[in-house]
Amino acid sequence: MYKNILDRLSKSKFRNGFKLKQKDFDYINQKGFSVIEQHAKDFISKRIAPAFIANDGKQTPMKGHPVFIAQHATATCCRKCINKWHKFEMNTELTDEQQLYIVNLIMYWIKNQKNK
Questions:
Q1: CA 49 to chain CA centroid, nearest Å
Q2: Is 57 in a helix, a strand, or coil?
Q3: Which residue from 55, 57, 61, 70 is spatially nearest to 15, judged by alpha carbons?
Q4: Alpha-carbon gap, residue 15 to 27, rounded angstroms
Q5: Taking each helix axis from N to C terminus, what angle separates 66-73 and 96-114, rounded to the nearest 10 degrees?
Q6: Fewer CB atoms inside 10 Å of the end CB: C or N, the chain?
Q7: Diameter of the chain by CA atoms?
Q8: By the 8 A CB rule, do 18 and 64 touch?
Q9: What whole-number distance in Å separates Cα of residue 85 and Cα of residue 72?
C-alpha cells in the first residue's frame, strides 16, 4: 500500500532529496520507534489535521526531527501537499483514519530509511 505512493514520490526530485542523517538515526535509536510514532501522531493531530491552518505550507520545519524530514519526503508536510499527492480534501478536518494513514506512511518511510 505505502510502496506505491513512495514509488511515485521517489520520482519527484524534491521529495527524493530528503534523507535521514546519522543524528536522526541516533535520535531514533535513543527514543525508540514507539516514541517517534507518538511524536508523529502529535505533530499530525496538531499541525496537519485541523480543517484550517493559519500557516499552512510553513508549519513543518525542514529539519530538527526525523518526523519532519519524513513529512516532506512523503508529502504529508502541509494540507496542499496532502491534497496533491494523497487526494485528501482541503479545508476539512482529517479523519482518524486519514491521520492513521499519514502516521503509518511516515513510520514506513522512516523504517525504510533505517534499513538502507
A1: 12
A2: coil
A3: 70
A4: 22
A5: 100
A6: C
A7: 37
A8: no
A9: 12
